[in-house]
Design goal:
This protein has helices at about 1-10, 20-35, 45-60, 60-65, 85-90, 100-115, 125-130, 150-160, 175-190, 230, and strands at about 70-75, 95-100, 120-125, 140-145, 160-170, 190-200, 205-215. It has about 240 residues and is α/β, with parallel strands linked by helices. Strand 4 (about 140-145), helix 8 (about 150-160) and strand 5 form a beta-alpha-beta unit.
């Protein structure tokens, strides 16, 4: 797996040191072990995990620029993608992982302890609730989400956490035009604007659109709305 990691990440322009590769290997082993007990991922083959989880998570850095000593919230992190991978690759990044399923949070706490990662936490709850807590609302330099919801829904779940001047970076699939059209009104309403869209492709393996939104104004206090509402009636 060491060679597989090296080749995959170098294809995308990333260089992993030995510690980072060992951490990702341990991550994979723990992921597969826990996946026998709780549903963390449908992807288990080494090559698929390396490309479709680890490398895919790292593509965040194609849009983020320097992240040294910045704070990041990963909304709907699941098994830690992309948040844990980003922490491994950028050790000075302060990371908070948010997920609505307690069993996944248990896994994340075990994972981060096993990997001996510092300045990273995993919290249980819904974005609609945590987005109104003073210690989390508009407190993060960076917020990200991957494979969580359509952009029209995702914006309301994520943008309330971004501080003014900070960025929300969403990792989306190749079919983006309809999502963007549906999300435009909500983005402006929540106090942000799209500042970049990066299209990235790795041979025939997968394609990604990375959407960067910059927070330009405070999010109105009523957002996010109560749990379930953003999904039922997107902005």
């Amino acid at each position: 797996m060491d060679k597989l990691l090296t080749e995959a990440f170098e294809q995308a322009g990333f260089t992993l040191n030995d510690k980072q590769k060992n951490q990702l290997i341990t991550y994979y082993q723990l992921l597969i072990q826990w996946n026998q007990r709780i549903n963390l991922t449908a992807i288990e083959e080494e090559q698929d995990v390396v490309y479709k989880h680890f490398l895919d998570s790292a593509l965040f850095f194609k849009a983020s620029g320097k992240v040294d000593h910045l704070s990041l919230l990963d909304v709907g992190t699941g098994a830690g993608f992309p948040g844990v991978v980003l922490k491994i690759m950028a050790p000075t990044l302060s990371v908070c992982l948010l997920d609505s399923l307690n069993k996944r949070v248990d896994f994340l706490q075990k994972l981060t302890a096993t990997l001996q990662l510092e300045d990273i936490s995993a919290i249980h709850g819904r974005a609609e609730e945590w987005g109104h807590k003073a210690t989390y609302r508009q407190q993060f330099d960076l917020v990200t989400a991957r494979a969580v919801a359509r952009l029209s829904v995702l914006n309301e779940l994520c943008l309330p956490f971004v501080k003014v001047g900070g960025r929300f970076i969403a990792l989306k699939g190749p079919e983006l035009n309809n999502e963007l059209a549906d999300a435009e009104r909500g983005i402006a309403l929540l106090g942000a604007q799209i500042t970049d869209i990066i299209e990235w492709e790795l041979a025939d393996t997968f394609k990604r659109n990375i959407i960067v939104m910059t927070k330009t104004a405070n999010t109105p206090q009523k957002y996010p709305r109560r749990a379930g509402t953003p999904q039922k009636t997107p902005l």
